[in-house]
Known about the structure:
The structure holds 2 protein chains of 2 kinds. By secondary structure, chain A is an alpha+beta fold. In chain A, 40% of the residues lie in helices and 14% in strands. Chain B starts with a helix and ends with a helix. Chain A binds chain B through residues 97-98, 101-102, 104-105, 122-123, 126-128, 217, 269-271, 273-274, 276, 279, 282-283, 401-402, 405-409, 412-413, 416, 421, 439, and chain B through 69-73, 91, 155-158, 173-174, 176, 178-179, 265-270, 273, 277, 281, 284-287.
Amino acid sequence: MGSPTTSPGRIHRLIAAAVALIATAALATACGSGDGDKGGGGGGGGAADAKGVDDGATLTMWTRAATRPQSEALVKAYNAKHRNKVELTVVPTDDYQTKVGAAAGSKDLPDLFASDVVFVPNYTSSGLFADLTDRIDALPFADDLAQSHIKAGTYDGKKYVVPHTLDLSVLFYNKDLYRKAKLDPEKPPTTLAEWDRQARAVDKLGGGVNGTFFGGNCGGCGVFTWWPSIWAAGDDVLNKDGTEADLASGTAKKVYDTYRGWVQDDIVAPGARDETGVTWTGVFPKGKVGVMPMPSTTLGLMPKDLDLGVAPIPGPDGGKSTFVGGDAIGISATSDKADQAWNFLAWSVGDEAQVDVVAAHKDVVARTDLASNKYSEADPRLVTVNQLVADGRTPYALKFGQTFNDPNGPWLTLMRDAVFGDAAKVDKDNEAVTASLGD
Amino acid sequence: MQVRTPDRVSVEPPVRTDPAPRRRARWWLSRNSRTLQGLGYAAPTAAFVALFFVLPLLLVGQMSLHDWPLLAGDRGGNAPENYTDVTDSTLFWPAVRFTLLYTGIVTVVLLGLALLLALLVQESRPGTGFFRTVYFLPGALGLASASLLFWGMYSPTTGPLSRPLEKLGLVDGPVSFLGTPTSALLSTVFLVVWKFAGFYMLILLVGLQRIPHELYEAARMDGAGRGQIFRSVTLPLLRPSLALSLLLCVTGSLLAFDQFFVLTKGGPDNSTVTVVQLIYREAFQRLDLGTAAALSILVLAALLLLNALQFRGLRHADES
């Protein structure tokens, strides 16, 4: 009896109880009952503790495969000396954007995630990172952090990331081959014209030796190694907001023409036309290439018996510049262990980590005040690289990935037309690049 | 009481009808027990289909009518903008044309070779088992793994194919297997044929073995030659297996992604971009899930239409 009338009542009461329970739980979470909210947690920029909290928390962190050795070295050193433990997940570079995007959609991001610095604006503008302005400003060496990374991670006046690994584009040249080609191994090229002459001189050695190499089917390789030659001449490639391209300028065309000449005269090692970037850095270590631009992070991975020199990338008539790439890292906005995560970040840019881990691994330090240190003093090549940070640039564009890194994007079309195809199309291709940037 | 007696008598039928509902229920149960059993067996699958196909499909449909950025952002309705955006892309029509071309080439080459292989190992002779296994082995490898394997082999610098060709004097320098639009397409077709020929051979082999031997013997006694037997006996009776292979091959080729993603990334010069690669590009390069969903719905509609036409064609063929 009565069950038809009492059932809905029961159900209503159950629903009401469940809603109350969920609401209570949500309130409790929002009010910050967890560890992470000590000192402005929740990823927010509350009261900043310069060192964060080291209370034995387990932190999750993602990095991309391209900068794996550096991230692993930092995490290993941190875990050895702290109560907090960082669990690092290395994600294939090509899948990184996808994974971060999917995780962001399901609010499932790790506590810390690094990103190729050119994609950082996508994440800051989408609110994926926690505001670190107060924490970063409280660091005693805040002004010495690589400013190109800090700028890339600044959105609406707030700072969201610190440099994690710096990867600069620099010229690598093979001193043994230079000697054989009667070139002075202590005089690397200082202009694009010299680079051209030296590459051709080495190429004449024959016997499988080539003058130079580049990733001709890799948009990311192009921006990383071609743009510094344009910047070195004082020109720019994008407007300040990253919405317009200037990649058909006279300087840009001079750069493309040099590469085109190398292709036409077979100065380039085989495979440049097909190189999608996967095996791009594996060619120089074989000792058969004279001079080519490469990521500075590969310096520590070179064969010990390879006598190589490092030099800045020059412009057509001189000057020097570099693409300050690599990864920047921030705390995800959904992390409830912001203080512990900051403890790792603050340590990672501190003196100990930068000198004893980063510099010892022959990588570029993230701080200009540490450009000269006990390891770089022992290897002048490191000083050359470290000092370049001040001359380098990190381009800013919200549509960077779809325009420059996408293998089907407009920049790769421009690159390939400029050096392999119809160079007359470069002006039109530049318009397509601009259209993609504003899309 | 007396009034009730005749009533009681006259109300005999209700006495009889009392057990009738039970009987009816039993009758209904026995009649429908098979249906209920069937429903019981089908329910888990139906639930899975609803959860993992129908629901996602509805979500994709909803996404296709909204702005839906991969990263955070507003998700307002924008119909039919996502659909019109798809055809605005300069890559769309070339991708459609390329996908159809690829499907045509793969279907003809793959099914032709699979049929040839099936005919070769149709009869049980010494060594047939070995060859059947060898032909099928590539089918056991994942497509992405196979693509990566071929990517390494096609490399002009580190791959094992280029150097021998140079040494034999067949080519002047390192061979760029993926360097031109034509060579990239053919190299990919070669991989796919290598990978799937054994799989389709298996389907056709089953079909071949279902053809009664007596028919072949009768045809031979009537003086039919090998070609005539193939045309008049084998092919007509193999039609159901060929139809299934055709359906699978066409659908799989129209959805081609892994092989091109690993081998060519749509290059060189955007010459090998497939429709599914465009979906991936919209979602994960341009971070626009709305347009990617619209493209997915269009591809689904095209596949449904094509499959319906194929089924209709096959049914007509069967009836005739």
